[in-house]
Inverse folding.
């Protein structure tokens, strides 16, 4: 009898193809984290068991405010407590948090989403999210849980396992809040190093997927600055202007981004070419091959 065919793993396949990380962070302005021990279904929020009326308000307000809704839980903890937490965080804004015992308590953070976020008056403590949503994608659980455990040893109060954040093939994926930086293709050791460098004020470009408040081509321009002008901190690169040009041909389009760099008088111009890659199976559960977009630096200076 011949041995069984090995199971397809999207993260293994992506590394074999050398899929580029940059420009792959899903866009969001803020994140609302809802503590929920699980189990998490494929659509974690809709399958959370939270009352339909409360979910309708949460999801509607999140969509209107460009907020990402995620379920979170502490790594390796199975103890269920009567009161769970919710946390609202985003770049440059104060972190809001509260507790919930019954579903209707979540209408409080839902109402927060309708208000303009208050600016941060002090550097907030970081939140480290690690996707471990195995029902959504096996790679996220297999690769994410060891990373979450490793980070929790170093930063026990900051680390949360979270539901699907996008980019399964780049698992393990880590999001650092409130900055909104996405990192991928990690392991338990490199994750501690990457997070440590970021928190120390030097963005490590090798594992950077993008900064979520920007569109994918702009993320690629920002990532190029972090790579070529290192060391730079999370707040040292800001976007001045974005000029999206007409498609160059049916295969790609160009975006010109002007960046302000801390310590540099003149803006930095970066031209990014967006091109479609060959179709591939991008997640473990995908039923067919689809093309991803790659972002290439055409000019820098």
């Amino acid at each position: 009898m011949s041995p069984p065919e090995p199971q397809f793993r999207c993260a293994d396949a992506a590394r074999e193809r050398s899929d580029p990380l940059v420009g792959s962070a899903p866009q969001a302005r803020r994140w609302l984290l809802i503590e929920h021990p699980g189990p998490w279904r494929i659509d974690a929020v809709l399958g959370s068991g939270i009352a339909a009326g409360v979910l309708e308000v949460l999801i509607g307000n999140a969509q209107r405010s460009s907020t990402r809704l995620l379920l979170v839980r502490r790594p390796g903890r199975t103890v269920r407590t009567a009161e769970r937490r919710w946390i609202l965080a985003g770049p440059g804004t104060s972190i809001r948090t509260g507790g919930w015992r019954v579903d209707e308590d979540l209408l409080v953070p839902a109402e927060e989403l309708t208000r303009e976020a208050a600016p941060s008056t002090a550097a907030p403590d970081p939140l480290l999210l690690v996707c471990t949503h195995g029902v959504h994608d096996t790679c996220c659980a297999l690769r994410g849980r060891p990373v979450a455990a490793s980070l929790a040893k170093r930063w026990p109060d900051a680390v949360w396992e979270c539901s699907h954040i996008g980019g399964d093939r780049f698992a393990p994926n880590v999001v650092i809040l409130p900055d909104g930086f996405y990192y991928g293709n990690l392991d338990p050791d490199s994750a501690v190093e990457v997070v440590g460098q970021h928190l120390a004020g030097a963005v490590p470009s090798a594992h950077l997927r993008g900064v979520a408040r920007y569109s994918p081509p702009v993320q690629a321009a920002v990532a190029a600055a972090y790579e070529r002008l290192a060391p730079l901190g999370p707040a040292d690169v800001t976007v001045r202007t974005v000029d999206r040009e007409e498609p160059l041909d049916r295969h790609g389009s160009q975006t010109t981004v002007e960046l302000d760099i801390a310590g540099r008088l003149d803006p930095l111009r970066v031209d990014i070419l967006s091109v479609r890659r060959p179709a591939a199976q991008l997640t473990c559960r995908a039923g067919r091959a689809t093309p991803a977009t790659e972002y290439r630096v055409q000019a820098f200076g």
Summary: Helices lie at 10-17, 52-64, 107-112, 138-154, 188-199, 216-228. The first helix runs from residue 10 to 17. The CA atoms of residues 36 and 287 lie 29 Å apart. The two ends are 60 Å apart (CA to CA).
